[in-house]
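Tokens in:
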């Protein structure tokens, strides 16, 4: 009989730990998915409005909106994952304080430092995904977005024309309007073309048309059974000519070279990049260090924020339930802004790259340790002092 309490205690610890871990990690995951979905939805809607505005104004093609939207959303994912990781841990632990679950866990012998393990169990896979996105996938997405945008801008006037939308040519000498396009062939319906030659405005209207390519590569827009109106605005001497076939040469657009962009370069290219001829060597190195620090700093800051959320989640019913959330938001904004500031300082050569990379993260890690110590000290005093 004397062995029963000892055996019971040995078996209860793994059971208590497994229940503890499962409950926390499950709630962390649910809150994290919810927060990420809300923030990602806001970003997608915002970017979609901007891209649609550019498509309506003719700066990008309508068929490129979805692709550019996907690339843009992927570039925002590292920051959104970091924020959702921080908020999900903060909300879950704050709820445990408000519902007095923390009192139960503390009375069961689970101290504040014991919360680090389940938090890291949930946070480390998310941090790994943030590192993958920041170091590999985001530069790839930005590079593909630049390539896709350059491909859209290199299309000729007729190919880039959107059905139902007036579009000006890249040389600003013609205006096209195409009502419908047969995707399976080169036929075009209800065409309007206006051009200016020798001070006179020429307007051509045709119900049918097609695109033709000659053996030498020249491309033409052919209008069939249409009418041409030519004259000077404000005067009555207009010439009206009906035609069966009218060919308009489509000027080829040269393929533009993709501009050098640090954000779209791979991490390996940044690490071993050489100095371009049109930049000073010192300035180029500072820009490279600044971009590398930003990419490395995202997963590092996400891990520190996950730990910082543990002491920040404490809720004092007498002081109000939102005080800890306000403090957490202030610390997050300060941390995020200081990362950007230190990157700018490295760019301008005010601090060394090592200080820019590890300085602010070391300070925030020390703040996290101090907050753990302060919170554990307060808990110890509450146990000792009566009431």
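Residues out:
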């Amino acid at each position: 009989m004397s062995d029963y309490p000892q055996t019971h205690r040995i078996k209860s610890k793994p059971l208590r730990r497994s229940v503890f871990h499962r409950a926390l990690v499950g709630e962390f995951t649910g809150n994290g998915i919810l927060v990420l979905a809300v923030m990602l939805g806001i970003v997608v809607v915002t970017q979609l409005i901007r891209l649609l505005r550019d498509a309506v104004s003719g700066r990008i093609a309508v068929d490129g909106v979805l692709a550019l939207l996907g690339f843009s959303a992927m570039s925002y994912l590292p920051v959104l994952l970091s924020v959702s990781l921080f908020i999900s841990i903060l909300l879950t632990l704050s709820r445990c304080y408000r519902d007095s679950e923390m009192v139960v866990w503390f009375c069961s012998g689970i101290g504040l430092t014991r919360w680090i393990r389940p938090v890291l169990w949930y946070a480390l896979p998310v941090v790994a995904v943030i590192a993958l996105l920041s170091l590999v996938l985001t530069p790839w997405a930005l590079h593909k977005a630049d390539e896709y945008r350059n491909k859209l801008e290199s299309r000729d006037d007729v190919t880039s024309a959107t059905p139902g939308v007036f579009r000006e040519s890249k040389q600003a000498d013609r205006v096209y309007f195409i009502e419908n396009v047969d995707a399976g062939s080169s036929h075009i319906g209800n065409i309007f073309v206006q051009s200016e030659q020798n001070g006179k405005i020429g307007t051509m209207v045709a119900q049918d048309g097609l695109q033709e390519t000659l053996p030498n590569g020249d491309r033409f827009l052919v209008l069939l059974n249409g009418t041409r109106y030519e004259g000077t605005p404000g005067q009555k001497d207009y010439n009206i000519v009906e035609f069966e076939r009218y060919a308009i040469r489509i000027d080829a657009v040269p393929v533009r070279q993709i501009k050098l962009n640090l954000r779209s370069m791979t991490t390996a290219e940044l690490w071993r990049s050489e100095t371009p001829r049109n930049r000073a060597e010192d300035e180029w190195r500072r820009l490279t260090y600044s971009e590398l620090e930003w990419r490395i700093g995202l997963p590092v800051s996400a891990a520190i924020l996950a730990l910082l959320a543990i002491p920040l989640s404490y809720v004092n019913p007498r002081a109000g339930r939102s005080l800890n959330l306000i403090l957490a938001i202030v610390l997050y904004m300060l941390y995020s802004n200081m990362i950007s500031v230190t990157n700018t300082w490295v760019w301008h050569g005010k601090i060394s790259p090592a200080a820019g990379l590890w300085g602010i993260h070391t300070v925030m890690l020390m703040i996290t340790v101090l907050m753990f110590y302060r919170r554990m000290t307060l808990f110890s005093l509450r146990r000792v002092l009566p009431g």
